[in-house]
Amino acid sequence: MEKPPELFDRDAEWRDLVAFAQQRGPGIRLALVRGRRRQGKSFLLRRLTEATGGFYFQALEQERSQALDGLGLALGEYLGVPGGRLAFNGWDDALGALAQLRRGDEPAVAVIDEFPYLLAHSPELPSHLQRHVDASRDRGPAVRLVVCGSALSVMASLLEGAQALRGRATHDLPLGTFDFRTAARFWGIKDPKTAFHVHAVIGGTPGYRDLITAKPPSRMADFARWLEQGVLNPASAMFREDDYLLTEERSLTDRALYHAVVGAIAGGSTSQGAVAAALGREARAVQHPLKALEDAGFVERHDDMLRSRRPIYRLADPIVRFHHVVTRADLARFEDRRFTEAWADAQPRLSTHVLGPHFEQLARDFTFKFSSPATTGGPVASVGPAVVNDQKARAQHELDVVATTRARSGATRVAAIGEAKHTTRARTMADLSRLERIRTLLTGRGQATPATKLLLFSASGFDRNLKGAAEERGDVELIDLERMYNGE
């Protein structure tokens, strides 16, 4: 089944869904599709039902009776029943009708989108669905049912522990954002520097293209104009996108607290202790909000690649970070459309707390997804940050990139270490010397070898001496934005 031409990228996701839709055998098979809003889930699933002649129903924020009426109307129209409507006494009846869908010799495909809206007033729905899935095993029409939702914590909980649907789903498909290279192609931006800045603001969320009417910038000279007409325009829906996203996640009830935690992380507090200190609380007091934000997909937890039990917290969504760092810090002037002066004053915050952390993340993404084994000293199994203690110098060294490889025996080794800096100055031999010092420390501890590759990432290039040294050595790689976007 060919992917529709209007569906950008999503090749693997389309193949997975087609494979699910074409599974042979009787009875109901269940799949979950989950992802943050505006990732294209509904667009993708509508194309699936169109291609398979399936049934699609999108739930709304309604009362239980209204939701049942809406499903009855949609299903009645789909089946062409007299009067165009089916009447259901409850969800057991509704699921029973879905379980009887037929499509000749092919499995019938049905999609229930925004499933968490139904769970808000009908928490018994998963139990009814479990009963119908179990009852249809080895008998009944072949139905391939997809339930989809944007509330990540709700969708993830459906398959946990003793939940009714545990063990009933054959597919659990997360739909994430586009990676930075795909996002550049999606927006039609060829200049790496401009593509990086756009990605640092809105990430790889495809649905934002429908909300930003201004033409995407093709060069850095157009970047501020694009922001003024879109993300930083008080009349744009994107102006308060961070607040909308937090509001949509029902599990995050204390919005002031969660905004405070997000703001602390955006401001550079990346450990549990640092977040607590920024909020003036004890460390254990922020453990629950950090976990809730992680479950909801707003915060990512990265374990230190070299030390256990040292998690580092990062914001998962660039637009949330951008608004907390740039917009909220000067909200009155941006709301008053005093863009020029507010944007000028925001530059230090933007550089330190938006562009810097984002460049580090893209360095890790490049290393994991796009670099060649020649660049990293072997096929990369995992990539993450780390902190290295230097007792002799009484210092700590932060590593933005630690890449490991895995041997056939299952053992892992550090293949490459790297540092990523988004600064206006070119990288120098001093930066290389620092990485060499860290490699020596790790070699002495048995965590690296003298052959471990050294990766220097820069948004502003490299000076002549450093370029000369890298050309003469096989253990040093210099990686700029051009290489991150177009090379390996």
CATH class categorisation of the largest domain: Alpha Beta
Q: Which CATH-level-2 architecture of the largest domain?
A: 3-Layer(aba) Sandwich
Q: What is the CATH superfamily classification of the largest domain?
A: P-loop containing nucleotide triphosphate hydrolases
Q: Give the rounded overall mean pLDDT.
A: 94
Which structural class best describes the helix and strand composition? alpha/beta
Contiguous uncertain segments of 5+ residues: none
For the biggest sheet, the summary is: 5 strands, parallel
Strand order of the largest sheet: 2-3-4-1-5
- What is the number of independent domains? 3
Descriptive report:
The chain has helices spanning 11-21, 41-52, 64-79, 91-98, 115-121, 125-135, 152-157, 180-187, 192-202, 208-211, 223-229, 241-248, 255-266, 272-279, 287-295, 318-327, 331-335, 339-370, 373-376, 429-444, 464-472, 481-486, and strands at residues 28-34, 55-58, 108-113, 143-149, 169-174, 299-303, 311-315, 382-390, 395-406, 412-421, 453-458, 476-480. The chain is α/β, with parallel strands linked by helices. The protein has three domains: 11-174, 3-Layer(aba) Sandwich (Rossmann fold); 181-337, Orthogonal Bundle (Arc Repressor Mutant, subunit A), CATH 1.10.10; 368-486, Trna Endonuclease, Chain: A, domain 1, CATH 3.40.1350. It has a five-stranded parallel sheet, with helices on both faces. Strands 8-9-10-11-12 form a five-stranded mixed sheet, sandwiched between helices. The chain has a two-stranded antiparallel sheet with strand order 6-7. Helix 9 (192-202) packs across helix 18, helix 13 (255-266) crosses helix 14 (272-279) and helix 13 (255-266) packs across helix 16 (318-327). The protein is globular, with a radius of gyration of 25 Å. The two termini are 32 Å apart. 41% of the residues are buried. The model has no long low-confidence stretch (mean pLDDT 94).
